[in-house]
Design a protein that fits this description.
With 284 residues, the protein is mostly helical. It is 77% helix and 0% strand. The chain contains 14 helices and no strands.
């Protein structure tokens, strides 16, 4: 269920009446409990965090080109990878994820994620995100989604409806802005600018990014999910959308966003601090 993009960076889930009835019959026999570790296992978080490390390394390369004039070299790229080490990411994510689920009954979440459709959706999301690490694959996904939009394909409309009903865009934008603010604060604190920048100036700068960030994220979500959910039938996508709108789906999504935001705020601050120190060293 990973739909948060780093620095922009992305997820949620579904149910029909028949599935709801089935789950309710199961839940009647289950005690109230929260099991974040089991949810992480079903979501295959370990695999996702490896992908996020690769995305973070690519972002580190972009920072090297844009802010270090390519002089960061192998040591900077190694530092960026270390900041995004899966074990570090997991510790931060898990703590925030568990806090967000405290007092929640996760049985319905587990029931969906452990269903055939739940396993399939999780696998499709991971496979597609892993494939899109290749810039050519990502560009092809964008082109395919644009062609689908031009052709007014019903499936693209269904994916866009899913994004809206699952409420994926606004939380992603909020998380991205918070991560960028953490990056700027740490960059300034690390001496990355040759002049003073006030908190108000940083807030204004980050807030000014919101429209472009929203547009970029909207396009990324559309391309990514249109590609990922291509193998699903119309009925499966409808059921998945319904789960996302259900209370268990909403609570799971809320907890995931809490975990990912905490994680990305941390790594963004770490990157900003490390970059500021390098910029200071270059200016000496």
């Amino acid at each position: 269920m990973g739909r948060i993009r780093h620095q922009d960076t992305t997820w949620a889930r579904y149910l029909t009446l028949a599935v709801t009835s089935m789950l309710l019959s199961v839940l009647l026999a289950l005690p109230l409990r929260a099991d974040p570790a089991r949810l992480e296992q079903l979501l295959r978080m370990g695999e996702l965090l490896v992908i996020l490390q690769e995305e973070g390394a690519a972002y580190g390369a972009d920072l090297d080109a844009e802010m270090l004039d390519g002089r960061g070299g192998a040591t900077w790229l190694a530092q960026a990878r270390a900041i995004h080490a899966p074990a570090r990411l997991h510790d931060t994510f898990s703590q925030a994820f568990a806090r967000a689920l405290d007092g929640q009954d996760t049985a319905a979440m587990e029931a969906f994620l452990d269903s055939d459709l739940g396993h399939r959706v999780t696998g499709l999301e991971l496979e597609t995100r892993r494939a899109m690490l290749d810039p050519d694959v990502a560009a092809a996904a964008d082109a395919t989604a644009e062609a689908a939009q031009a052709a007014h394909l019903p499936r693209l409309a269904a994916v866009e409806d899913f994004i809206r009903r699952a409420d994926l865009l606004d939380p992603n934008v909020t998380s991205g802005l918070n991560a960028n603010l953490a990056f700027y604060r740490a960059l300034v604190a690390g001496g990355g600018f040759p002049y003073d920048i006030s908190e108000t100036e940083m807030l204004n700068e980050v807030w000014a990014q919101a429209p472009d960030m929203r547009s970029e994220l909207q396009g990324w979500l559309r391309s990514y999910l249109f590609a990922a959910y291509g193998p699903l039938s119309d009925d499966e996508l409808r059921r998945y959308t319904a789960f996302c709108e259900s209370r268990p789906g909403q609570e799971l999504s809320r907890a995931l966003f809490a975990g990912f935001e905490a994680m990305f705020v941390q790594v963004s601050a770490d990157l900003g601090r490390a970059l500021g120190q390098r910029l200071t060293g270059q200016s000496l």
